[in-house]
Specification:
19 helices; elongated; 420 residues; 2 domains; 51% helix; Hypothetical protein af1432; eight-stranded mixed barrel
Length: 420
């Protein structure tokens, strides 16, 4: 089970039930090729830092929220890993979930009683999959191991030597091995060597910077476009000429203009027509989307998804904080450009003529322009208590900021489908 200490790519969805704000969040589980294999769903009730799966109330509430939002939307059609208690399985509470999309997660120290084993066998026969979390090789867990489709090992809690012993103990198991809490490329590489199949953590957003790395020429043009986008008064004719210098960027831009992201009623076939029809603000936004997509060519799609969510969230929430939406959109998107380009943030911002405040925000300094970026980064890491503190200190409504985030998640998904 994911905890607050784990780095989580968190997409929150908000519901108001009986006056209580509830959150369902998702953390990607990545495969060896950098693709999302599935999502673990997390729940927070707005009061406690995390929801403990050992709590039957937590599981029931989580199931209610999962049914309400729908696994298709929450997990994008991929397997959804849902934290459960033994009672939720033996009492058949989980049968409200679609079996073919659901992986039922149990703590590995759960007692394998005859009733639980019978319930697991019945659920697996109906199409559910089973995962054991925080596995540490307890001998008494062997009956559950034999039924498990996934076994998750927290590499933060279990050292390399212990992991080798665990993996030898699991030889012959048909379960996919999931390394939890993978935070760096070094940890990812080690987990790969050890034989793990899937990886949960934030490593994919932290590719190692390449020494003496030079940005390709066409991407330098993109940085020149970013320079123009950052100006208060954009020379749209010059901007359109720069965009047309890059065929790939022009193609991506026209696809975005003709997509649901812009909600255009007529097809656009040229950059000049796009400029006239969508207006400056929308044109700025979709140029940034196209540039980010080009930047992320060699990196996992999840990085791009996060960049889109960050940019759109910062833009939508900016008026709540008295900040400039255009600049906030840039800050949100640019925050993940170092991961895409495999350079340090310090090196990147030297190439961009950003305002000093925007530079400081991207470097993580505590200034007003960095509040929204700070909030969404905390959200991605599951630091909900810190998110609350940021909201309170900014004098904005928690409900408002969460709605902005939910809208950003929906918008980012539409943008990614267009770029597929």
């Amino acid at each position: 089970m994911a905890t607050q200490a784990e780095a989580a790519t968190v997409d929150c969805f908000v519901a108001e039930q009986a006056g209580e704000l509830r959150y369902v969040a998702r953390q990607p589980i990545m495969d060896l090729y950098g693709n999302a294999h599935g999502y673990e769903l997390l729940f927070w009730n707005g009061r406690e830092p995390t929801m403990n799966a050992a709590s039957d109330l937590a599981t029931r509430t989580m199931l209610d929220n999962t049914v309400m939002f729908g696994l298709e939307e929450l997990a994008r059609g991929l397997p959804a890993f849902v934290n459960c208690t033994a009672d939720s399985l033996t009492e058949e509470l989980v049968e409200v979930l679609p079996p073919h999309m659901t992986v039922l997660e149990l703590p590995s120290d759960t007692e394998p009683t005859p009733d639980l084993l019978a319930a697991c066998q019945k659920l697996k026969a109906s199409g559910f999959r089973l995962a054991l979390t925080d596995f540490s090789g307890q001998p008494e867990s062997r009956p559950l191991v034999e039924l498990a489709d996934y076994i998750k090992v927290d590499i933060f809690k279990v050292g390399p030597l212990e992991r080798r012993i665990l993996l030898r103990w699991l030889e012959g198991s048909k379960a996919s091995l999931v390394a939890q809490n993978v935070e760096t490329q070094q940890q990812y590489g080690q987990a790969c060597k050890e034989g793990f199949d899937l990886f949960q953590g934030y490593y994919f957003c932290r590719p190692e910077p390449l020494p003496n790395h030079k940005i390709p020429g066409n991407r330098l043009v993109h940085l020149e476009i970013l320079e123009d986008l950052n100006k208060d008064a954009v020379d749209m004719q010059r901007l359109s000429q720069l965009v047309m210098c890059d065929a790939s960027l022009t193609y991506r831009l026209l696809r975005l203009v003709n997509s649901p992201v812009c909600a255009m009623r007529q097809e656009v076939t040229s950059i000049q027509t796009a400029l006239m029809l969508v207006g400056e603000a929308t044109f700025r936004r979709i140029v940034m989307l196209a540039i980010a997509t080009d930047f992320n060519t060699d990196q996992p799609t999840e990085i791009l998804r996060m960049a889109f969510e960050r940019g759109r969230f910062c833009e939508l929430a900016a008026p709540l904080c008295g900040l400039a939406p255009n600049e906030q959109y840039l800050i949100g998107m640019i925050s993940l450009f170092p991961a895409m380009l495999r350079i340090l943030m310090e090196d990147l911002i030297r190439m961009l003529p950003l305002r000093e405040a925007a530079r400081d925000a991207l470097l993580g300094r505590e200034i007003p322009e960095g509040v929204l970026l700070h909030w969404i980064v905390c959200q991605e890491h599951g630091g909900w208590a810190e998110c609350d503190a940021i909201v309170r200190s900014s004098g904005i409504s928690h409900e408002q900021v969460m709605r902005c985030h939910a809208q950003a998640v929906e918008w980012a998904e539409a943008a990614l489908k267009t770029n597929a």
